[in-house]
Amino acid sequence: MREALERAKALRWAGRPEDAALELRKALAGPGDRCELLYLLWDCQFVLGDRAAAHETLLEAKGLATGSMVQRIEVAEASWLMSQGEYRAAMELADSVGTQSDEIRAYALSVRGVCEAFLGDLPRGTATLEDARTAAHRSGSIRELTRAVGNLTFVLATAGQHERNARIGREALTRLGIQGLAPTFSAVIRYNVSTSLLALGRWDELDSLEVPDAIPGNKAARILLCQAEAAALRGRDADDLIERAEKVIEGQDALFLAQCAYTRAVAARAKGQYRTAVELCRETVLDLPEALTGGEVLRLCAAGLGAARDLQAAGGRVTKLDDPEATVAELLARLPVPQGPEDEVWRRLAFAEAGRDSWAEIALEWDRLKMPYQAAYARTRCGEPEALRHADRAAHRLGALPLAKMIDREARRRRVPLLHQDKPQLGTLTPRERDVLELLGWGRTNKEIAAELVLSVRTVGLHVSHVLAKLGAGNRSEAARIARDQT
């Protein structure tokens, strides 16, 4: 039995949890102490996404535990409660585990840190997870070190601290790569990093993030969904990546299907298939899997509400919703309570899509979270001239072509010249009009410009009118800003 256990451990740490589970089941059919075998089987089943079977295995192991295995299984049970959202119960159980082992202590601290963060105390939660990293270092356990980092990056990503998450996660992946352990231990960290690279608009880095074959299918599939969303936002075909994700997922996974529906909705909106996007979001929200986070539900509702708004504004022979007001009310009613700063902004965005919040304020909130695509989207919805120009710059910098087209449509509707359109317009100015524009930029009055250029005030007034008309500017200050942006 000991040899079977060691073979199973080797397979598990080689990134082959399914093979490890098969080895463990064979060993469990024979005589001997079953507790350690069951404990490792629980870990394999949980990693593979079979949570119900994992919990049954854990309970069976608990009934057989003696010695240090009692504490290990108690912490594992706390981890299970945490995964079910029962944070207070999980924290109490983790705290009750008395141990002198740094390895078990690191595990317990990892659980506690996540619970603290999701109960609203993010600073304390991240500090506890840093303590878990320290204890794991002392123990020399790579498994517990990667667990601590995985939980820390998960908490940071969920809290909208994407830059910190990307930095810590990248550093951990580099260390694991040097030790030759990246494929085995990096799945959770790699996924958490991918969500932050997506949020930060660092899409080229996300594209280059490898998905080793050794990564379990449920994590590999979700990394591919992140890459698919980035592709869709750039106007590329995301279908191949979504289909790859569906192929690598192992077994029926309601959580993955809901996450996949969101990515398909984003891709549909990018292609102008607004009704499809609304239906995907609406159907998913009506039958939510329990494991879907509040943030994921908020994004689903926001995407559905945004697509509904786009659909109502679309012209041509577009099939409209049968009852748009009922659809909007239904999606708004499904919005969960936010669990962190990013969730708060997603909730505000959902209400703004229904005309019940300020897009300008929401854009500033996205700026604070350093999420450039979302900030540009909010400024597009805002529609003010300077907001549209700001959004246009961001969209072109990100390569977000569908958003750039949306900005262009809105700018044309509002007769707002965009920065990438300004240079040809400046080129239409006469030399004298350029002189007048330069002085406008210095804040000179028509009388002061007339005196400097030796012209009549009436002639200067005509030149100013021509400049504003050619630039499409609403006033002198706006014309001056357009000129400054190009010099």
Automatic annotation (TrEMBL):
Pfam families in the record: GerE
Sorted UniProt keywords: DNA-binding, Transcription, Transcription regulation
Location of the HTH luxR-type domain: 422-487
CDD domains: LuxR_C_like
GO MF entries: DNA binding
Coiled-coil residue spans: none
Any one of the GO BP annotations: regulation of DNA-templated transcription
InterPro entries from the UniProt entry: Sig_transdc_resp-reg_C-effctor (IPR016032), TPR-like_helical_dom_sf (IPR011990), Tscrpt_reg_LuxR_C (IPR000792), WH-like_DNA-bd_sf (IPR036388)
Protein name: HTH luxR-type domain-containing protein
Taxonomic source organism: Lentzea aerocolonigenes
